[in-house]
Amino acid sequence: MKLAFREKTDQFARLLFGMTGLMVIAILAGIFLMLLWNTVAFFLKITPWDFITGTQWAPSENPANYGMLPLLVSTTLVTFGAMCIAIPLGIGTAAFLSDYAGNKLKSILKPAIEMLASVPSVAIGFLGIVVLGPGIAGITSQSNGLNALNGAVLLAIMSLPTIITITQDALQGVPNAYKEASYSVGANRWQTLVQVTIPAAAPGILAAVMLGVGRAIGETMTVLMATGNASAFPKGFFHSVRTMTATIAIEMGEVPYQTTHYYALFAIAAVLFLMTLVVNVVGEHFVNKYRKYQAV
Questions:
Q1: How many Cα atoms are found within 13 Å in the side-chain-facing hemisphere of 178?
Q2: Measured between alpha carbons, how far is 31 from 39 in angstroms, rounded to an integer?
Q3: In terms of C-beta density within 10 A (0-12 exposed, 13-18 middle, 19 or more buried), how is residue 196 classed?
Q4: Which pTM does this prediction carry?
Q5: Using CA atoms, how far apart are residues 254 and 273, in angstroms rounded to an integer?
Q6: Omega cis (within 30) before 59
Q7: Angle, helices 148-172/133-140, rounded to nearest 10 degrees
Q8: What is the mean pLDDT of the chain?
């Protein structure tokens, strides 16, 4: 009787988990098909070349311009700036927590960093408007500090919990035999960390960086509040920019249904989807590459 009950339980669990897996795949497929359908409708009116290489985004003008290159460069610029700040800070903090911090200090820092991930993006955007923006404006003698640098700093703050947490797990996952072997040949703690622990944890660190990049690319509210939202072609970190996510958030609520402008926003979302996909595929490639290296 017990054996029959366990078999029925296993069958029910297999069916339930199989259905949830298929449901996730169906949701992803539905999102992809919705983006693809509306993007194709847009490309029937505007060629992909004009859309990607156009240097002016002005859908309300007559004639309308649907060049997304300024939005693409702005997104890349803000994400690049955020990673320049977040990657060294994140890996350094994770290394400190893993190899240098005492248990008491670690018990304080670790929950604080994890709580940072739960701060709403609108609150961090507000910080950019009332604190960071005026500070940047004062240093650069500009009328306001709502620019790419402001957005990059805020996105770095938002990416740090992800990078720190996953990197620390990767560093702590390195076998102690690696460190003991390094100490046995006379290396100190810093040399062991830089030359042994971090290279051995490279797959996990790279995965952390990729997740941080994905977090920065997909963020909407913070960049909408802190970057100035100028759709002109960006000239540098001290100029106002408008990212792809901010453009969709600003214009989707007001655009007439099933117009060229409406379909153009779906085309931007499709490009954003492809960018995120490429980041994940490249990250997975390097993770597998380092895993093979470690297995040798």
A1: 17
A2: 12
A3: middle
A4: 0.86
A5: 22
A6: no
A7: 120
A8: 88
